[in-house]
């Protein structure tokens, strides 16, 4: 019976109020932020109706609040775009928290930066992928695997010069040149990615100012370039006022390190030895300060005692058995214990 009464009451509400008015009255005005489409209602709830009819009460409350929000939207400047009606929202007042970080825009490639500076616009819409070829008399795609097959059909015969060597394979040279172009493009692509992410590239190829911001790095590159010969730069002429970079002899194998001059007197020799000891002690290596004579004797005694203990344990162990010999007679069909020859 209760279920029937609730259904009848809902039907009466629908008949009495099929469409509510646009005007909604509130004791306290809503706090509306049109930038984020947020409406905050600070009015007190009717607890009696909320307990008796929670669904209908919440629906009517949300309907009234949404109606007030839509009324505010219609007060904004509106324009018609094709069939739809658009309203320009103002800047949001509330800063809503995000569950994830805002995605960063992708960095522009080298070509995109150049096109942006020069004002070049690429028009992809309406551009067909296929292109008519007069030789093959068919439509060929401008890129893809079918284009490569069509190119092979067109270049099945290559005209050779009179002075050309007959042993040279022209098709093999063309394939090698294509692979070189592909590898060059891939290297350039990786360089663009490294440049956009501010990653320092290794010292390969022709250097530029971007690779060597410091004079020390430039001197290192010059030294490596001069010593990258079979003679390790022995017969390479140096520029005026040019010197080898510091600490570069460790990186270049075969390059002779400059030896330090011998100490002229006893005081200099003592200073060098003291600096050497200080460098050793500054490191994290453990240095044992003990009497080496007693230390070695104790180590020997402990080693001999350990060996004796091991031998005694082997003699008195119950599980170990001495292997038996065959006594000159050996049956190949039976397994006999004993020492195996290797």
TrEMBL record:
<dbReference type="InterPro" id="IPR007023">
    <property type="entry name" value="Ribosom_reg"/>
</dbReference>
<feature type="compositionally biased region" description="Basic residues">
    <location>
        <begin position="307"/>
        <end position="342"/>
    </location>
</feature>
<keyword id="KW-0690">Ribosome biogenesis</keyword>
<feature type="region of interest" description="Disordered">
    <location>
        <begin position="294"/>
        <end position="342"/>
    </location>
</feature>
<dbReference type="GO" id="GO:0042254">
    <property type="term" value="P:ribosome biogenesis"/>
</dbReference>
<protein>
    <recommendedName>
        <fullName>Ribosome biogenesis regulatory protein</fullName>
    </recommendedName>
</protein>
<dbReference type="GO" id="GO:0005634">
    <property type="term" value="C:nucleus"/>
</dbReference>
<dbReference type="Pfam" id="PF04939">
    <property type="entry name" value="RRS1"/>
</dbReference>
<keyword id="KW-0539">Nucleus</keyword>
<feature type="compositionally biased region" description="Polar residues">
    <location>
        <begin position="294"/>
        <end position="304"/>
    </location>
</feature>
<comment type="similarity">
    <text>Belongs to the RRS1 family.</text>
</comment>
<comment type="function">
    <text>Involved in ribosomal large subunit assembly.</text>
</comment>
């Amino acid at each position: 019976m209760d279920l029937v009464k609730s259904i009848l009451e809902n039907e009466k509400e629908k008949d009495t109020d099929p469409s509510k008015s646009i005007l909604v009255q509130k004791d306290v005005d809503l706090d509306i932020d049109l930038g984020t489409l947020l409406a905050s209602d600070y009015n007190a709830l009717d607890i009696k109706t909320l307990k008796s009819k929670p669904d209908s009460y919440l629906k009517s409350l949300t309907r009234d609040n949404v109606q007030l929000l839509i009324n505010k939207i219609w007060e904004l400047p509106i324009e018609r775009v094709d069939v739809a009606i658009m309203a320009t929202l103002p800047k949001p007042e509330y800063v809503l928290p995000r569950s994830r970080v805002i995605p960063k825009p992708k960095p522009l490639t080298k070509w995109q930066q150049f096109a942006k500076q020069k004002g070049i616009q690429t028009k992809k819409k309406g551009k067909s992928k296929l292109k008519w070829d007069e030789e093959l008399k068919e439509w060929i795609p401008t890129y893809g695997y079918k284009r490569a097959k069509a190119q092979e059909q067109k270049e099945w015969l290559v005209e050779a010069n009179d002075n050309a060597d007959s042993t040279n394979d022209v098709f093999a040279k063309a394939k090698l040149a294509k692979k070189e172009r592909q590898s060059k493009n891939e290297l350039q692509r990786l360089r663009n990615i490294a440049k956009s992410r501010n990653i320092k590239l290794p010292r390969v190829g022709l250097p530029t100012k971007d690779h060597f911001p410091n004079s020390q790095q430039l001197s290192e590159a010059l030294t490596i370039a001069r010593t990258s010969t079979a003679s390790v730069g022995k017969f390479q002429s140096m520029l005026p006022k040019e010197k080898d970079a510091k600490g570069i002899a460790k990186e270049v194998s075969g390059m002779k390190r400059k030896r330090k001059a011998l100490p002229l007197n006893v005081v200099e020799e003592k200073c060098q030895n003291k600096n050497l000891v200080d460098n050793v002690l500054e490191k994290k290596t453990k240095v044992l300060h003990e009497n080496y004579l007693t230390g070695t004797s104790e180590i020997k005694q402990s080693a001999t005692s350990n060996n004796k203990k091991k031998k005694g344990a082997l003699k008195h162990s119950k599980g170990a058995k001495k292997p038996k010999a065959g006594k000159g007679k050996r049956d190949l069909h039976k397994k006999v214990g004993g020492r195996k020859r290797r």
